[in-house]
Amino acid sequence: MSDDFLKNPAALFDIRGKTAIVTGASGAFGSLAAKVLAGAGANVVLAASREDELKKVAAECQALGGKSTIVTAIVAKRPSSAENCDTIVAAAVTAFGRLDILVVASGLNKVAKIIDQKPEDFLDVMDANVTQSWLMARAAARQMLKQGKDGLGGKIILTSSARGLLGHPAGYTAYCASKSAVDGITKALGCELGETGITVNALGPTVFRSPLTAWMYEDTERARDVRKGFLARVPKGRLGEPSDLAGPLLFLASRASDFYTGHILYADGGYTAG
To answer: In which residue ranges of the chain is pLDDT below 70?
Structure first.
């Protein structure tokens, strides 16, 4: 094995000129992922249902130095559509000639105790988190296999959660089941595509700062009580920040992770370790 990488180890993380798709790109994690990849020099294709928000993210990506194009794909529309996912991949190839990285950041949660939850709500969560992940991985893998093993070969990154491994008492049966299924897809595809040069991994965040969780970081009695209970399980002793997800994402998107596949990488401050 060549040890040329020792002369410039940082080159293992170089994704300049690579083409990435990010679904759910108008959401908290999706927009962060798009900007991290753009800031690292990748071309990004942004897919989500909110075109106005996508335009904002696209402008931010371009300001960071990356090229970008928008696909107004109704990824949140149920049921998920194979044609829709194929359209997203085709848009990336049309705009930039190839596809190197897929980040599936679209998703859904509907919280309710099982005795109260409607079956259609359970199915909506499973469709958004599981079927959408499977269909996007399928469309991306087909394109990546056409391209061969040159370059990255292909990086498929799904979005898991600590809730794929651990339960939750507050009406999360649908969400926990969906993320466990995403973990299963990740492991199975890691095995299935292992010899092709395509890696399939999942990033599993816990709570991190976003518009949806901003209240948990506030100095209020409610926020302090919630943090106290949560942080009792977090060895690092704090909630997550967006920067805590940037490094793991870049690792999974780059050559640095070429020997990692079928892996769920938890960005959780040690939450799942205890």
So the answer is: 1-2, 73-78, 149-152
The residue count for the chain? 274
Catalytic entry in 172, 175, 266, 271: 175
Residue 6: how many other CB atoms lie within 10 Å: 7
Quick one: pLDDT at residue 213? Answer: 80
Taking CB atoms within 8 Å and a gap of at least 24, the contacts of 83-88 are 84/135, 85/132, 85/135, 85/136, 85/138, 85/139, 86/139, 88/21, 88/23, 88/45, 88/47, 88/136, 88/139
- 12-33 per-position pLDDT tens digit: 999 999 999 999 999 999 999 9
DSSP track, 157-194: EEE--GGGTS--TTT-HHHHHHHHHHHHHHHHHHHHTT
C-alpha to C-alpha distance for 92 and 107, rounded to whole angstroms: 21
Residue 271 designated active-site: no
For domain 10-210+241-266, is the CATH number 3.40.50.720? yes
Residue ranges with strand state E in the chain: 19-23, 43-48, 68-72, 101-104, 155-159, 199-205, 263-267
Rounded to whole angstroms, how far apart are CA atoms 140 and 156? 8
- pTM over cut 0.85: yes
Number of H helices, E strands in the chain: 8, 7
Domain ranges of the chain: 10-210+241-266
Question: What pLDDT shows up at residue 152?
Answer: 57
Average pLDDT, the chain: 91
Each residue of 113-167: pLDDT tens digit?
A: 999 999 999 999 999 999 999 999 999 999 999 997 664 589 999 999 988 888 8
User: Phi and psi of 74, rounded to 5°?
Assistant: -80, 70
* Structure token digits, residue 252: 């999974």
Q: Which residue, 161, 185, 187, 188, is CA-closest to 175?
A: 161
